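Take a look at the protein record below with the fold in mind.
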Amino acid sequence: MTSIKKRKKLWFILLPVAVVLIAAGVVLWLVLGQRAPTGPFAILRDQNTNEIVSCKLQQGIDLNTRPALPWDFYQLELPEGWQHEVDAAQSANRLSDIYEDHYLDEQLKEIVFLQSPAFLDWELFRPGARWDIPQQLQEVWFGDRQLMYGKGENEDGETTLLYWVQGNSLLYLRYSGDVEINRMLELVTLVEETPTRQPIYSNLTLHRAIVMPGELLIVKQSNGTGGNPPLPEETDSWDAPAFASVPAGYTLSSEEEGDPENADLTWSWEYQSQQGDALLLSCTLGSANFFTDLNPSDPKAFHGIPRSQLGDSSLVQDGQVNGSPALLYLGEEESSIGWVVGIFTVELRSKAPMTAEELIALAQTVA
């Protein structure tokens, strides 16, 4: 009888201990047995400060095996009161490997939404034309999605940045000012999960410069063309218009061949006369600007209309080339004419003095 009582007493002592040990084992399994989720970004930290010093894509598309465009195109549902200032759909086509939207929020702060292919080993700290170099970068998990949150600087001051991968795309938001992470995550939820957005196509048309009134010169639109023509799938249809033969009195001095598959959309031919006057024919696939300064540091280059005079509409005349509307600029040192041929914006520039009639007659030999 005494032995049975001792066994019962021992059992009541050991039972709580066993429960504690089992619970501890479960906790250890949850902590040590579960691996941290693996996201698309590989992060390298400073051993002393734990700051992020490198961040690149460890999951993505190999540049050597990239699929054909067009690329996935995601829609951002606009919050109430926002304005869509730059619509990527207005310029997107089958050559686009980056889409760029600009918005203004209810307080008129700018938000930029960029989309590009998620290429393997793409580096967030690499300087780029459209991507800010992040500072104070932090890793953030939003559900099972890894995001990189940080700060940046541009000509307007501090910006807030957010990067994440969705499908085969690297998505990026840049918000003007110092924005809390929760506000940025709210925007992530407004991006559709499955891309459904499509380009908006339109024919190329001419437009004149628009300069905003005020003390500061703000050019809202330059002289040139606008529109987004659909590109034929057969690249043979992309042959740029050109002179059938070298213009009389000139010799070909240089030629540059466009390569649309590698984002080079401009073909150009430069000619020289016996008097040393230059003649330049350029053809751009899609929209382009006219009468621009090609090289400010070179006095022999084409400089077009000075920026300070872009608001002077009298400097630009209307004309026609083979029945198509054209814009002409007859300056003291150069003359230029721009027009549309199908899916191309064409511009002919001359250093030799020419009347409007002479310039149009020469332009009409381009086909």
